[in-house]
Amino acid sequence: MHWNSLEAFFAMGGYAFFVWSSLGVTLIAMVLEIWILQSQRKQLKLPRSTVSQDHGNV
Amino acid sequence: MQVNWFKYAAPANFFPLAGKIYPWFYVFAALLAVAGMYIGFFVAPTDFQQGEAYRIIFIHVPAAWMSMFLYLVMAFYASLGFIFNTRLSSMMARAIAPTGAMFTFLALWTGSMWGRPMWGAYWVWDARLTSELILFFLYIGFMALQAAIDDPRRGDKAGGVLALVGAINVPIIYFSVKWWNTLHQGSSINLTRAPSMASIMLWGMLLMALSFWMYSIAVILSRVQCVIAERERRAAWLQHIEPHTT
Amino acid sequence: MKPRSKRFAWILLGLVGLSAATALVLNAFQSNLVFFFTPTQIANKEAPIGHAFRVGGLVEQGSLHRHGTEVSFVVSDTVKSIPVTYVGILPDLFKEGKGVVAEGQLDDQGLFHAKQVLAKHDENYMPPEAAEALKQAGAMNSKISKSIVTESGSK
């Protein structure tokens, strides 16, 4: 493990804003893309995305 | 039952297959991302000159790779559709564009978040950054063109031309740091020499790249189902698919 | 929105995007895609002297002097060098022996007045201990200068 404390981890050596905003925006973009896609699937009445064995009717 | 199976063969076969496999790629993407982020943020050491700020690399480089790779795949499918008149390839190209645009945006965003503390500027007009911005406009232009043309087959043709012409930009992005004086540094990963990166850092980056790859496959397969469903709404074979109510 | 006006909006967006892309390409090619000039290029009068341009190279060891908010240093590509003066805050990575790109103008005495100073780092990533070991082996400087100076200096 690289970090000595939780504060040190969040501080990112003084670059917290730049590191966390890179990570945050990436996460937001991906969640948004999946959310838009899921609502599109719902609108088109496509099966929801679930990992299951039951795909017999697709 | 008089269904012209030959006509709808490709999308009709592909549709259920895509639906069956795409959720698994979300699982792979999540597992790889957990491993990559763990290595990148907890195991990998501080960089000797950039301190902790270099950790942006674990998102920036995979996003930039995907932005270029997805464009090439999109151009490949679009040109297949253009040359052989295969509908499924053009639909794949349509499904790839939004994800490609998203990764281009992320490469630009994380790049500017990295550039400010390290170089001293959020943005500079050097060859690498400018050509990546052009890639973003190419994706947007492709999507706008497809959305503007009502006749999907004509939209496919027009998009195919744009995607193919724009593909020249991808090698320009890749080699810009070699061909011109840029503020952006050269590639750490090369085919001709050993990577100029500590191996644990390299591992984190490669795992994240693989994760983004799996994510792209999941999203694109899911979206191509939407594109097919929208396009072939009246096609006979889709009527036989029982809609889920959940 | 009516379908027709919606389509018109998309066409407009597409046209704006494409013309923005074309404008950027043309603009980039016009300035010949040169982000900075090396001191050798400036000595050979390849840089647009009299206009603002950028000079890039390594900050020469021992050349950095601070007088209040004013800093002066020498940018070198190991063949030629250019003295630079600058008033302002330097980026975190600005160090002697490291890469730098300064934007500004050259005066009659050959002094470069920088308005902006950017740090150019190389593509090597490693833990500090590894860097220290390399430095002791004497391989570090050649590695850095190879990635920043000779590659771009030869262009």
Please describe what this structure looks like:
The complex is a heterotrimer of chains A (58), B (246) and C (155). With 58 residues, chain A is mainly alpha-helical. Helices cover 59% and strands 0% of the residues of chain A. Chain A has helices spanning 6-11, 16-43. Chain A is elongated. Mean pLDDT of chain A is 84; it is low at 53-58. Chain B has one domain (9-22, 60-197, 209-239). With 246 residues, chain B is an all-alpha fold. Helices cover 75% and strands 0% of the residues of chain B. By secondary structure, chain C is of the alpha+beta class. Chain C has two domains: 1-33; 39-153, OB fold (Dihydrolipoamide Acetyltransferase, E2P), CATH 2.40.50. Helices cover 37% and strands 26% of the residues of chain C. Chain C contains four helices and six strands. The longest helix of chain C has 28 residues, at 3-30. Chain C is extended and about 70 Å long. The termini of chain C are far apart. Residues 150-155 of chain C have low confidence and may be disordered. Chains in contact: A-B, B-C. At the B-C interface, helix 4 and helix 6 of B face helix 1, strand 6, helix 3 and helix 4 of C.
What attributes does this structure have?
A: 58 residues; 0% strand; elongated; disordered C terminus; B: 246 residues; mainly alpha; 75% helix; globular
